[in-house]
Amino acid sequence: SERTFIAVKPDGVQRGLVGKIVSRFEERGYKLVAIKAVVPSRALAEEHYADLRARPFFRGLVEYMTNGKAPVVAMVWEGKDVVRQGRAMIGATNPLESSPGSIRGQYCVSVGRNIIHGSDSFESATKEIQLWFGKPGEVI
Ligand code: ATP
Ligand code: MG
């Protein structure tokens, strides 16, 4: 058993998709460990997507995550293979390439408004859970 970091992005929150997304993880059999609505600071969003700093869409991505039109709903989910399975449930980065049964494949069409984030590895999950939920020295 392991944990992953999942976040409903502001467009997913604004569109009222939090309940549907939570239900999909619950119905799969995963356990909700932590959840909060938060408008991330620019520093938090930049650190969260630090690997993408050099990409042309980085500024727009940080603006999208932080503009406050709606919060991000940040979550930690736990269960067997949840990092990899969570990514499979979410679908491909570009929703036009996501399988129709995936979350992105069912609910969105734009790579710049793809409604949900999931950690891409165990190492990313550990980092992201600490970044979004951890105070220094605190373990959830
Ligand atoms: P996430 O990290 O949000 O779960 P991902 O792991 O599927 O998404 P990444 O390569 O990490 O994909 O990209 C992070 C996010 O950056 C994407 O989810 C999307 O919101 C945005 N993004 C990626 N590629 C593009 C692009 N070509 N144009 C605009 N936005 C993009
Ligand atoms: Mg990613």
Overview in brief:
This is Nucleoside diphosphate kinase. This protein is of the alpha+beta class and 140 residues long.
Overview of this protein structure:
GO terms for molecular function: nucleoside diphosphate kinase activity. It comes from Jimgerdemannia flammicorona. Keywords: Kinase, Transferase. The chain is α+β, with helices and mostly antiparallel strands and 140 residues long. It has 7 helices and 4 strands; from the N terminus they run E-H-H-E-H-H-E-H-H-E-H. It has a 4-stranded antiparallel sheet, sandwiched between helices. It binds adenosine-5'-triphosphate and magnesium ion (MG). Residues 52, 57, 61, 93, 111-112, 114, 117-118, 120 line the site of adenosine-5'-triphosphate. The site of adenosine-5'-triphosphate has 10 residues, from strand 4.
Kindly name the structural category: alpha+beta
- In percent terms, what proportion of residues is strand? 15-25%
The ligands bound in this entry are:
adenosine-5'-triphosphate, magnesium ion
Tally of helical segments: 7
**SSE sequence, one letter per element:** EHHEHHEHHEH
Helix content: 40-55%
In total, the number of strands is 4
- Which residues sit in consecutive blocks of at least 5 with pLDDT less than 50? none
- Gap between N and C termini, in Å? 15 Å
Shape: globular
Q: What composes the largest sheet?
A: 4 strands, antiparallel
Radius of gyration: 14 Å
Query: Would you tell me the overall average pLDDT?
Result: 96
Provide the spatial order of strands within the biggest beta sheet.
2-3-1-4
EC number: 2.7.4.6
Binding site for ATP: 9, 57, 87, 93, 104, 114
Domain Nucleoside diphosphate kinase-like: 1-140
Protein name: Nucleoside diphosphate kinase
